[in-house]
Prior knowledge:
This protein starts with about 50 loop residues before the first helix and ends in a 10-residue tail after the last strand. It is mostly beta strands. Helix content is about 10%, strand content about 35%. The longest helix is centred in the first third of the chain and has 13 residues, at about 100-115. It has a domain at about 70-110. It is globular and about 90 Å long.
Amino acid sequence: MARRFSPPKQPPLTRDSSTLPIPSFANRSSNELGPPPGSEFVSPGSPLPSSDEAKNTDRPRRHLPILPPELVAEILAWLPVRPLVRFRCVSRSVKTLISSDAFIKSHLRNTKASSAAKPNRVERLIVKSEKLGLISYSLGSLHNYRGTQAEIDLARPERFPVTTFVRLLGPCDGLLCARVGGGFVVWNPSHEASTELPMFRSGPWIPGSFMCFGFGYDGRLDDYKVVVLVSSKKCDDSSAYQTEVQVCGLKSRVWRRIEDFKGVPGDDVGKVAAGCLHWKASYVNDEPRYTIMSLDLASETYREVMPPEFGEATGLWTLEALDDRLFVMSRNSIDCSSALWMMKEHGVADSWTKLFRVLHHGMYPGEWRPLMYISNSGEVIFRTRYCLLIYDIKENTVRFLTSKDWFDYDSYVYMETLVSSGLEN
């Protein structure tokens, strides 16, 4: 009968560094791949040790560290939106964390505080036109393009089902508001949550009347509001206008009238900055001049914000809001140029600062409206009546981002967020 061979017993390993073999990888050549001599290595096809052998081993086990929940939440709050949306499928506890109001607010603060170059801040360009429908582009692909006067091939667009009668009313904290027919829809394109507000109703329509809109955030009630302005001629004076204002919150879902607007609004859509909606307005206090009127969404009160002192042959000017700050694009009728102004401190007229002048390269200056100011690269994305373009401040050059056959389109830049307050998944 054959004798069973038993290997000699090895002395047990201790934690004393003097008796532990420490393999050296520094002096090994590139041909000596694999485990160092004397190390335990299970090659493919070799039998694994049994459970009893694993229990009897004296080698200390290594366990992955268990991170505190607070640290996990802090790490996740700095990630982009799309991975977080996928992470909701990991477990019920992860989904509960990512869907909580506290986490969503923390993630929103981190996203706003980050610059456009940070990976956790993802910004996209949304365009609505009768020809294209509703399309969302990656903003990073715009900056990487280096062609000249050509239509760029952007990342595959994300098309949203939408009817022809749609008007975009601008973004706020990643939410987009649109007027669809006679109603309003608010949705987050990052995770497709949406809601439809009750139908807006006003008094009898008077010939010559017009409507303006706004969408922003009320920090006091933690609610997002849609604002509708209806300007109509007064019955007692055919040259004077009265502007009624109604507001509807995503939480209350009730339209209610507030104090009338001061003056006649000159912008179709209000610009969001510092918790207020802003419109270029005229005939404030019956004075025939143009100024800026703001509506504080928390207190629902109005305030006049003085435009810059242009000090040049300026004709028309337009009001914009980029990255929660007010901007004004003024036009010089003498040299066919424009200047971009930024209000550094909201509501302080002396804080208006002229950033640069734009030469229009033969294009009518009234068509240029800034969409995004990229200060670190010295570029500005503009929209004209027919196309989008990037203007290089340093080189004074223009790169067209789209073909010039667009017409009657809306375009906004929004950042991806998890905000879903008042929305339905």
